[in-house]
Amino acid sequence: MVEILAVIRPNRLSATKKKLIEVGYPGYTCQKAMGRGKKPATFMMADGTRIRTGLVNKRVLNIMVAEDAQEEVVKAIMEANSTGAPGDGKIFICPVESSYNVRTRKQTDEI
Asked: Which residues contact 79 (CB under 8 A, 6 or more apart)?
């Protein structure tokens, strides 16, 4: 089992949800986050002035999948979020050693 941690733009969340449902992985946890990559973001205001900011709104998705599904889910996230512009996001893959069902208090091998 692996955890896919995807940092994406907030305006791409809906497209990402649809894509995950299409490939058969509708379950995830989503959090609001603020952050930045290597460079601070620059925004153009309506009056033409540019503003540099240190932090940008993002969404972080945590998705647990079987290792053999990892490639398909990553591909779906990339398809939904790739615009070719800086700030499209980042995807991290982390191994999951074990999981537990809180209600039954049993260790599970399932997601």
From this structure: 19
Q: What angle do CA 92, 95, 101 make, to 5 degrees?
A: 115
- State the Cα angle at 54 between 50 and 57, rounded to 5°: 95
Distance between CA atoms of 72 and 59, rounded to whole angstroms? 20
Alpha carbons 23 and 85: distance in angstroms, whole number = 25
Model pTM? 0.84
Residues paired with 42 in a beta bridge: 52
What lies within 8 Å, CB to CB, of 106 at 6+ separation is 100
| 38 secondary structure, DSSP code | S
Q: For 51-101, how does the pLDDT look when each residue is reduced to its tens digit (9 = 90+)?
A: 877 788 999 999 999 999 999 999 999 999 999 988 899 999 999 999 999
In order of 17, 39, 72, the CA distances from 66 in angstroms are: 19, 34, 11
